[in-house]
Each structure stands twice: as structure tokens, then as C-alpha cells.
Amino acid sequence: MTEIAFEAITKRFGSSARPAVDAVTFTVPAGHTCMLVGKSGAGKTTLLRMVNRLIEPTSGRIVIDGKNVLDEDPIELRRHIGYVIQQVGLFPHMNVAENIRVTAEVTGGWSKKRLAGRVDELLDLVGLPPVEYRHRFPRQLSGGQQQRVGLARALTTDPTILLMDEPFGALDAITRSQMQDELLRIQRDVRKTILFVTHDIEEALKLGDLIAVMHQGGLMQLGSPMDLLTRPVDDMVARLVGSDNILRALQYLKAATAAEASHSAGPVNKEDLPLCPPDASLLDAMLKLIETGARALVLQSGDPSPDRHVTLAGIFSTLTKGHSRESRCSPSGEQESAPASGRGAAIL
Question: Where are the beta strands (DSSP E) in 224-342?
Fold first, then answer.
């Protein structure tokens, strides 16, 4: 796994007075998914395309594995970075297997047997049975299936970094949701460092470990979904993520954020309480507590630490903390407290 570090990266087009990307600095940790959000013209796609040098920076550095990408051969660099776009870009005269293996063939060093095995492995990974789809042509696939093939192609050479530029933007709502779930499943299996551009804040909250909010070329805030929902840096970010929307917070914050160690509130007998999956949302946990009438749920985890449990009080505390006072979050992730305001107090 590889981290991506942006160091005061700037891009100006021609003599434009305002940079498209203005001295942006932040780091995407190895194996994390970072969502780039913001209005059109905020600089999201420009920032993404500077990583594989489809756009050349004006100044600053992008460091991958300790190396400045500007010191690398751009063609060689792109061969080791997966790239998925909205239009997919499948070759219509090639079948699915040929479309997937083309990047490995360009890179070289792959035997026919190894390539055939890799194609089947990737088709299985993206949920397309190889026997059924290997020999189909793009025109014989739905939009969602084409997008799955595009994702498989981006993963052919097993890149450590995956760049995704609104890959699901042209899909219908149901297919888009299915592709989001598929990406979450794939990421759990292969753990890539992903930089993902989207205009859809729901998609950002669902997929992202980190969310970078951009505005007029600058980085306004970098943080987890919980950071943005409970501690937006200003009113613009608050409006963008809908931090005053209690249902959104319930849907996208994990139950684990409301979990407490058993010893902190007295012993909890696992046998007497329902279990809560580790990936459950606060909404899932709340509904299960109401449905079962249980006083707590035991959070399922392979962690050998003391049992953790989720209660309605813990959920309430998670939703309200961070709203009782304003908190400022710098792009480095450091938080800085400010005097309390009345905005958060009115949320619940």
C-alpha cells in the first residue's frame, strides 16, 4: 500500500488570475479512500489528474513512495496507477477479456496463461462470472457492467493507487448504489489507496475514509465523515455535507463511533444482548435497539480488547458531541476549538 502526499501543489492555466488548484497540502494514508468533493470548478479533477501527470503541476510536489512524481517518467508512472473515469473508455472492437488485459500487455512481462488467469480473477472480483462475460463485447453489456469491466481493467497490474474520476456519475440510482457497494467490498479485499472525485456528498460519506472539501482551488477541510458531519469548519462546508441533517448522520456514521468499553459502564453479559455488526450504521444500531428493547448491543469485533457495547445514550452522545462547540479542522487534520455557537445546539 502507498500513501499520496500533496505538498503545496498548485496549477495555473495560462494567465488566469486564480489558480485552478491553489497550494493544496494534505496526505492520503496508504490503503485509505479519500473523496474529493466540492462545487464544479473547485479543482477536484485537476488535482486528481496531476497525480498521474495527465495535467502537469505549476508548482509544489506530489510524493508517492517517497518520490516526487515530477521526477518520474510519466508513461511509466501511469502504468502503475489505476485510472477509472465516468465514460469507461472500453474499446468497442475488443471483448471483455481483451479490454481487461490490454494494460498488462502494454506493460509487458505477462505470459498468456498468467494474463488469462488474471482476467478471470478480476471478473470474479467485480462480480461478473468469467464464463458468461469473458467473450462479450462492450455493446452487449449494461452501463453498470461496463463500469465493472473498467474497474477490473484499472486493477489488472495490481496498482497500489487507484484514481477514480466520477466513475459512477452516469449510472442510474440503483446501479450506482450497487457499484458503490461493490467498490466497498473490493476495497476490503484488496486495500488500495484511492482518490475519488464526486459531486455526490452521499457517495462521499458512504465510500470515504477521508473527505477533502475543495472550494475555488483551495482545500477547505480534510477529515473523516464524522469530522465533517459533527465539526464542519465553516458554514459553506456545513451546507455542503448537510451537517444539520440528523438522518444523514445516522445513516453514515458507524455504530462503532458510539461504542463504549464494557468496564466503563459496568459489566455487560454478551449472552443477554443482541450483536451489532462492525459495519452497522448508527441508524441500524438505533433501530435494532428499539426493535429488540435491549438496553445495549454488543459490538462484534475481532479485537481482543474489552467488549464494547452500543446504547441509545451513546448514539445520542455521538450525534451531539462536536455540535456543542465549534471546532476548526486544518487540512493536516489538527483540530482547533473555538467558542461555542448556537448552531449545533438546535440540531437535536
Answer: 259-261, 275-276, 297-299, 308-310, 327-329, 335-337
